[in-house]
Amino acid sequence: MKNLADEVRLRQIRYLRSLKSIEKGWRVWRPLIMETIGENPSNHSILDLADLLSDIFKATGAPGREQASLSNSGSGWEFLVLWYLNSVLWGSNFVAINQKRYACPANIAEALSIHLFDTKVSAGTQILIFNLPSALKDIDEYFAFSSSYFPEVSMLLLESKTNWNDNAQIPMLWDIAYRTGAGPDSGVVLGSEHVSARDFASLRYGFVTVPSNKTEYKATSAPVTRLKALEGGVYWGHPSKIAVAKSIKELPISLLQRSSTDFPEKAFLTDLNQVSDGAKIMLSI
């Protein structure tokens, strides 16, 4: 095991792979991924896989494919995004996990919880992407995750949805709650008396979508304009489109404040084989 972050990401993906709904989709997605990146994938071929991720996801809805309903499955799309991000982030101290499924430390989940007039409300399907402080030594310390580490953590929340049009207002409202709307006078409380997401070094909210809609998205489209203010950005499984959405491959670049021109050769990777190594390991799960 190279580092604690890699152990966390493997635990997350193994757990999700154990779910029957994901297993059925993975039988379709995995061969397509392997066919796309080839037997000896390069770092760039894996990075560029993000531009095809939506097409790969939609393959479960093609005629002759089993479980066609998976093309509308939010959990399936979330899994592919998590699989991709953790493959690309392999060897780094950043992890991508599901907020509600197995790999999220209780203190982090509590810090990100929102109460509206004393009633806990759910923010839906969220992917958490954050760095692990170097002081965390093992998996037990990770799951305990003392709030004393929060000032060292940069947190990105991603609302994951297959449909863009019907869900454009949801991340906009949650972004307001997390970024500007939380406070006792508003009736919105972020976290608890013990832990709060306000203690993170940074907290941003973003949106990642297939999208499953057949809309031709433009900079002036209503779903697009509603999300322009998201600090965490808007991403999809296609090539980036200026003023509309970025390819998911821009996420790790954004996280580490690097430009796409020097990723991955001069970015956070100390070993140029880590991206391809990560993908191979994640494909073998």
Give structural attributes.
single chain, 285 residues, 6-stranded mixed beta sheet, 3-stranded antiparallel beta sheet, 14% strand
Structure overview:
This protein has 285 residues and is α/β, with parallel strands linked by helices. The protein contains 11 helices and 9 strands. The protein has one domain. It has a 6-stranded mixed beta sheet, with helices on both faces. It is globular.
Number of domain modules: 1
The helix fraction, in percent, is 25-40%
Mean pLDDT: 85
Placed side by side, the strands forming the largest sheet appear as 1-4-5-7-8-9
The whole-angstrom Rg is 18 Å
Structural class: alpha/beta
Largest sheet: 6 strands, mixed
The H/E string reads HHHHHEHEEEHEHEEHEEHH
Task: Tally the beta strands.
Answer: 9
How far apart the termini lie comes to 15 Å
Number of helices: 11
Instruction: Indicate the proportion of strand residues.
Output: 5-15%
**Which shape, going by the Cα principal axes?**
globular
Low-pLDDT runs: 63-68, 258-272
What's the structural blueprint in terms of helices and strands?
Elements (H helix, E strand, L loop, with lengths): L3 H14 L2 H18 L5 H5 L5 H6 L15 H15 L5 E5 L7 H7 L1 E3 L2 E3 L4 E6 L7 H6 L9 E8 L7 H13 L6 E3 L11 E8 L12 H5 L7 E3 L9 E2 L2 H6 L18 H11 L1
